Amino acid sequence: MTKPKPSKKSIPARKPFAIIPSAPNPDFVDRSEIIAWVSTECQIPGRRVALVGLGGIGKSQIAMEYAHKLHTENPHTYVFWVHAITTATFEQAYVNIAERLNLPSRHRSKVDTLDLVRRWLSNESNGKWTMILDGVDDMTTSFSPCRGNKFLSRYLPRTSNGSILITSRNKDVAARLTGSYKHIWEVHAMTQDEGLQLLQKKLLHLESKHSAAELVESLSSIPLAITQAAAYINRSPRMSTKLYLQEFRANQMTKTFLLDWGVRDLHRDDSASDSLISTLNNTFEQIQELNPSAADLLSLLSYFSPQDIPVKTLLDYHKMVDEFNRDPSASHAEHHLKLVVDLDILTTYSLVKIIPDGNIRQTLPLVGFCIQNWLKSNDKTVEYQRKFFHLMEKSFPSGDYETWKTCQMLMPHIQSLYETTPEAQHLSRVRANVMTKAAWYMTLRGKYKEAGMSIKQARIIREEVERTCETRNTKMDRKEETLGTLSVLSRLLRLQGKYREAENICRQALHWRYMYLGKVHPNTLSSQEDLASVLCSQGRYGEAEEMSRRTLDTRETTAGTKDRRTLATMSNLATILRGQGRSLEAEQLERRALAGRREILGLQNPETLLSMQNLSAILHARGLENDNEALEMGCQAHQGLEHKLGPQHPDTLTSIHNIASILHTRGGLDRAETLYKRAQQGRQELLGLVHPDTLASISGLVSVLRGQGKDAEAAAMLRSLESIPMQGETSFGGLDAMDAALNVANVLQTQRVRHQVVEPSE
Fold first, then answer.
1. Number of H helices and number of E strands within the chain?
2. For residue range 594-636, what is the model confidence (pLDDT) as tens digits?
């Protein structure tokens, strides 16, 4: 009897396993929408998908959470984590996979381990697998020849039994690896609630939810920055979210220190930076190496407000750079193409976003600070301050009505000029130029408080620059720039009712311009006109008329009767004549001004509408027989001003007051009451209670109330005027308030400061 042959011992089937660099992160904040998308996509046979976004935004943490979830829910699927930051880390990951799979021949000297793993992955009989390819940021890592002219991407097989999830900072790399931009999810910063959850999970103690929410907002809800902050707070018993926030906001040096301070996070790759600044610096340097022009644009963008950066301004920048490099020959199309290429690279790295109106938006405010810190570390701060300041000087227009749309777009972006003291002294002059234009724009828009802050800061800078001038010619040039700033300041003060201060500045500017420029220079005539307006506002009509006529005669001779400034002087002289009771002369002059403005500016230009409003007031002053035309013209002016300037603009409120005055005279007391109240409330909110315009509306309202028999309501309004100083010089206390208010009204109705049209900027 023969013995049976011993059977070969059967080899048990290998149980699928997972290679994931760390255990599940207990502090992970669920970003369920992203993970659900990855799960759905990766169930499609052979699918490759990618998470792209800035460094520190949480891509790898989301991928790791998905990997653990997949391994738990699908134990029959292999999960392989491959660090792909460099060729070396990619190769080492494949060596580790070969070891865990116990692949034959893996130790032979001439065996290509990468190809060994690729062949195993390509064999569908080996079962399902998912690979996480983490940190593929550089195109050369995956698509440059290595290993005998083979690309690393060649070792990523497309098979029905496998799927690949990629994380990358570079959208183009991700698209090339996945095969389509449709298979990419761009990871943005956390929401405020998600960021607060992460901070709460990271902190040992949370003493104030309010300060925690403020901190998350200050950190732009970037997960890495939040993790850094929590680690810093946890390390010291004295530290709290409130104190951290105070130190973060204290100054740039402290802010830089906190953003650059890092502690090893066991759930981050060992090769990854632990601070936001270091992480982003790697991206900036990669862009610098890839395309210096895109890095140059990125550096400039750090000085803009993150939202709504006008493309036109960036085109102006490319043109300015070419002119500076003495290469003015480049066409608009060439500038546009260069900008498109630069923005495409920055968009690829999730640093900017093109919004529907075609303008640009930086993805996160904190990134701009990190870029400026990078510039400082490379000794480029002065260079980019100079570029940005000169660009704003070139791009920010005069502030006159026709430029308002551009001014409005650029206002958020010039804020850094107010907040940044330039390291180069010569940039102070450029800074003051922009501030002066911005102040003039805000003055015309009726934003007197903001205009005041801007023009006063510009004045301080101007005077400091003037003091440091070394030559006489340079000093004269700087003096004229100072006088330009003072002219805007004097006009603002007049509109605020601060007549004496405005007069002093006007006389100072006029004195210097007589000396430096002569009596017929356009800027001298502007100072002359400014002084005439202030004198008119104070009821000094004789002096005002003499100066205004002199200005008008010179302008008609030198610039012509249809010049914009000539027409402004004509309108202002009409106001002075009306104040003197010479309504017929005033009407004739204002009709000339109105006709000229209609012709050169159009019917809907605010200057034309103000001439119409002035003419309405003049006709009303001439008597009842003119009130129908006065009312019709006043209503037309009001509709135009409300549409062009807004319902709360000082000129719109004046038009309401004037219509109320006409209705009051005609006996329409109910309607007049409503309009006087609108004018009074708007003026009081905008100009203050003791401003002459506000008092005029109060006076008109009191008169109407008394005419309606509402004596108690009128008396209550008058009591509000008691003991309130007017212009810091006169008080209603101890006087009959009604008489005092009516006296103010009588003066104002003759001088009507607001009827005068501020002339265009110099």
1. 34, 10
2. 999 999 999 999 999 999 999 999 999 988 777 899 999 999 9
- What's the rounded Cα separation, in Å, for the pair 245 and 534? 48
Interatomic CA distance for residues 280 and 371, integer angstroms: 8
d(C-alpha 263, C-alpha 275), whole Å:
8
Cα 758 to the chain's mean position, in Å?
Answer: 28
Residue 601 identity: L
Question: Residue 590 — φ and ψ, nearest 5°?
Answer: -70, -35
Whole-prediction pTM:
0.86
Say if strands 184-186 and 48-52 run parallel, antiparallel, or are unpaired: parallel
Tokens of 704: 């109407």
Q: How far apart are CA 666 and CA 593, in angstroms?
A: 28
Query: Do residues 399 and 438 touch, judged by C-beta distance below 8 A?
Result: yes
Tokens 């001014």 belong to 407
**Phi then psi dihedrals of residue 472, to 5 deg:** -65, -45
Task: Give residue 734's pLDDT.
Answer: 32
Backbone dihedral region for residue 464 (phi beyond 0: left; psi -120 to 50: alpha; all else: beta): alpha
Angle between helices 522-537 and 564-579 (to 10 degrees): 20
Strand pairing report for 730-731 and 725-726: antiparallel
Return the biggest CA–CA distance within the chain: 145
Cβ partners under 8 Å of residue 419, min gap 6: none
Residue with the two structure tokens 């203050």: 688
pLDDT attached to residue 105 = 82
Gyration radius from the chain CA atoms: 36
In sequence order, what are the residues at sequence separation of 6 or more whose Cβ sits closer than 8 angstroms to the Cβ of residue 73?
Answer: none
Closest C-alpha to 670, from 631, 633, 707, 635? 707
* DSSP calls for 323-337: HHTT-TT--HHHHHH
Name 167's bridge partners. Answer: 51, 134
What's the burial of 472, exposed, middle or buried (CB within 10 Å: 0-12/13-18/19+)? Answer: exposed
pLDDT at 757: 41
pLDDT at position 562 is 92
- Lookup result for tokens 């008396």: 715
Query: What per-residue confidence (pLDDT) applies to 626?
Result: 79
Which residue, 620, 687, 619, is CA-closest to 653? Answer: 687
CA 265 to chain CA centroid, Å, is 35
- Burial of residue 412 (number of CB atoms within 10 Å: 0-12, 13-18, 19+): middle
Tell me, rounded to whole angstroms, the distance of Cα 24 from its chain centroid: 40
Query: What does the pLDDT look like over 454-507, one tens digit per residue?
Result: 999 999 999 888 888 766 666 677 888 999 999 999 999 999 999 999 999 999
Asked if residue 173 lies in contact with residue 349, where contact means CB atoms within 8 angstroms, the answer is no
Q: What is the pLDDT of residue 750?
A: 41
Residue 146's SS3 state is strand
**CATH 1.10.10 is the classification of domain 284-395:** yes
Residues of the chain scoring pLDDT < 70: 1-13, 141-150, 264-272, 325-329, 470-475, 723-762
DSSP bridge partners of 133: 82, 166
Tell me which residue has tokens 């809907």. 604
User: What is residue 10's predicted lDDT score, i.e. its pLDDT?
Assistant: 38
Q: Which residue has the tokens 């934003």?
A: 447
Give me the pLDDT at residue 7, please. Answer: 43
CB proximity list for 314: less than 8 A, separation 6 or greater:
297, 339, 360
Which tokens in the block code for residue 9?
A: 């011992």
pLDDT at 362: 83
Specify whether the CB–CB gap between 314 and 358 falls below 8 A. Answer: no
| Number of other CB atoms surrounding residue 266 within 10 Å | 9
Are 187 and 58 in contact, with CB atoms under 8 Å apart?
A: yes
What is the distance of C-alpha 428 from the center of its chain?
21
CATH 3.40.50.300 fits 18-186, yes or no: yes
φ and ψ at 98, to 5 degrees? Answer: -60, -40
